[in-house]
Amino acid sequence: MRALHDDPSREAAPRGRRGTARRGTARRKAAGPRRPRGRPLPWTALLFLVPALLPLGFLVVYPIAHTAVRSLFDASGDTFVGLGNYAEVVRDPGNRVAVRNTAIWVVAAPTLVTVTGLLFAVLTERIRWAAAFKLVVFMPMAISFLASGVIFRLVYEQDPDKGVANAAMVAVHDTFTGGGGYPGAAPRPGPGLPVRAPDGAVAAPAPLAAGSGALVPLLRVRPEHLPGDAAPAGPPPGAGPGELTGTVWFDFTRGGGGTPGRPDAGETGLPGLTVEAVRAGPPGGGGDPPGTVAGKATTRADGTFTVRGLQPGAFYTLRLPPENFAAAYGGAEWLGGTLITPAIIGSYLWVWAGFAMVLISAGLAAVPRDVLEAARVDGAGEGRILVSVTVPLLAPVLAVVLVTMVINVLKVFDLVFVIGGGDPGAAVLASRMWTESFGGGGDQGVGSAIAVLLFALVLPAAALNLRRLRRERP
């Protein structure tokens, strides 16, 4: 008894803590022994899991195994070819394009979605209607990928009257450049009238002396190309010693009549055209060398123009450059050439940016505010805080979003199929798998090989995600 009384460890433990320890030990004994980590589940738990494991194995494991086996046989499924289908995947130029596009998707799409979601999450904390903004940004997630593809197929239409993207580009272009000219317009044929030059320009048939005027009648002007400020065609204004004047008009009278090659009542001037005076040579030489553009002018609302600053007595060829008759600016070719893959990635960003924003906003709500305030007190700007404080603290959440997007883009199919419309330049591995198996290729062996390759590409990202989840589990 004395030895127990003299034990320093028993004297160091307070009475209350000894009582708490005894109660905790009693609870653990009543609850039974804890199962160590890594120990298999009891047979009772496995029996309860069997009803879920059976359909899971039938719907997941069996298709994966069957696809792997099918990839070793030819198109008919009767002849064993080993790795021949995989060699065909590598040899096919279309599959190489799909691999290149898939690599672009894996690098660009997850990065853009994560960065955009981060910016939205950070900026929405500073606006009053944050909930409404998040609702609007997240709303595309409620739309099926098929419907999203149809929407962006219309957005990227080439015709500016139908496609929103090109309509916006044309509006901005015409605001700064003054719009287009008169595509398809041509000079009226006739003796002494301007003719079409080999380069597409319209030029007077003979040089004119400075101080004279000219008439340039045009045909084939479409009504939609006539600007709203176009006025009735007027006669050429009087020309001074160093000037060339004239009128460019639509030489067509509604209902017939009129004199061809002369401005008549009811005929419209063509404003906005560029007119050049090209040096043809003076009678005695001197001045600018022949072929030099000595002056320019732009036609007025009634089609008249005046080119000033010319050398009196010199001769000039009146010329309308081919740019006046080129096709109007119609925007970009979104669904062709090199822009089709970035265009589809843009639609993917529209759909998934809200998902990334919501996840990152949840992580941002858990960031300690005192850390941010301390950074502001130390004089750090908002950009510096975002890069050096917010992003490191949100690293686990950003990793979740990034890995999830990588897995998602490896199997993207709906948007590519609907927006791309089967264009080989937009193909990715998932779309090539469908094309080879069901979309006209007729070779399910090669399609299965592509599916196995896709599965192998997804496995590292899935394993990384699983490892992270195990590491975060308490």
Automatic annotation (TrEMBL):
Keywords associated with the record: Cell membrane, Membrane, Transmembrane, Transmembrane helix, Transport
Regions of compositional bias (Basic residues) in chain numbering: 15-37
Principal location listed in the UniProt entry: membrane
Record InterPro entries: MetI-like, MetI-like_sf, UgpAE/MalFG_permease
PROSITE patterns, alphabetized: ABC_TM1 (PS50928)
TM annotation in the entry: 43-65, 103-123, 135-156, 348-367, 387-407, 446-466
Membrane topology listed for this record: Multi-pass membrane protein
Family statement: Belongs to the binding-protein-dependent transport system permease family.
UniProt cross-references to PANTHER family, sorted A to Z: BLL4140 PROTEIN, DIACETYLCHITOBIOSE UPTAKE SYSTEM PERMEASE PROTEIN DASB
Protein name, as recorded: Carbohydrate ABC transporter permease
Source species: Actinomadura rugatobispora
